[in-house]
From TrEMBL:
Protein name in UniProt: CAAX prenyl protease 2/Lysostaphin resistance protein A-like domain-containing protein
Keyword field: Membrane, Transmembrane, Transmembrane helix
Transmembrane segments annotated in the record for this chain: 7-28, 34-52, 72-97, 117-135, 147-163, 169-184, 189-208
Residue ranges occupied by any CAAX prenyl protease 2/Lysostaphin resistance protein A-like domain in the UniProt entry: 116-202
Record Pfam families: Rce1-like
UniProt record similarity statement: Belongs to the UPF0177 family.
Parts forming coiled coils: none
GO BP term, pick one: CAAX-box protein maturation
Molecular function via GO: endopeptidase activity
Keyword Transmembrane helix appears in the UniProt entry: yes
InterPro entries: CAAX_protease, Rce1/LyrA-like_dom
């Protein structure tokens, strides 16, 4: 399998996984179980994409990865760095567009989480895993082989921001750019998964404590 085929497989699988819960609700009227179905499909989807990644070829960014210990350290450090990026981007977003510092997407999920605690699996494990494999590895990694790395990172990060369906595009794009940088620096997609998952966990715990 070529790298392009691997990237295509990751992206298409991800899109199908996202559509399954909505399809179940629309065709079978199972709206009350939407988040449960989403948790199941996203969890299985994350495992499937991890399997595809394990079995697939490495891209040009992964040819010379950091040693495992350093990659893990960067992953943990990346949690704090990602939170700092989020705070700075949020301040810029508020100054430019007067947007609330709180994300509607996040608030909706936090409200649902209090009633359906299994959603924490999506927020802190499944979604970050799939998003890193798709937006950082498949899209950023794939485009980096053909385009200037900065342009590839911008495209990947804008798509990452758009798919969250939130008005805070600057925040999501900034986080995406940081994670692209981290992936390129470490050569390990697992580093960005750790950082992304850890950032989501901190944000989730913050909201639940208030």
């Amino acid at each position: 399998m070529t790298q392009s085929q691997q990237n295509f497989r990751l992206i298409i699988s991800y899109l199908i996984i996202l559509l399954i819960p909505s399809a179940l609700v629309r065709f079978f009227g199972l709206s009350d179980q939407f988040y449960l179905f989403t948790t199941i499909t996203d969890s299985l989807g994350a495992l499937l994409l991890l399997y595809f990644n394990y079995r697939g070829p490495k891209n040009s960014l992964e040819k010379h990865p950091l040693p495992l210990k350093k990659a893990i350290i960067w992953g943990i450090s990346g949690i704090l760095l990602a939170l700092i990026v989020q705070i700075i981007a949020g301040s810029i977003d508020h100054l430019l567009f007067k947007n609330s510092t709180q994300s509607l997407n996040t608030l909706t999920l936090m409200t649902a989480l209090k009633a359906q605690p299994w959603l924490i699996i999506i927020l802190t494990i499944a979604a970050p895993t799939m998003e890193e494999l798709v937006f950082r590895k498949a899209i950023f990694g794939g485009l980096s082989a053909r385009l200037n790395p900065l342009l590839a990172a911008l495209i990947s990060s804008l798509l990452f921001a758009v798919i969250h369906q939130d008005s805070h595009l600057i925040i999501y794009a900034a986080i995406g750019l940081f994670l692209c940088w981290l992936y390129r620096k470490t050569g390990s997609i697992y580093t960005t998964i750790i950082s992304h998952a850890g950032m989501n966990l901190v944000v989730t715990l913050f909201y639940l404590s208030h």
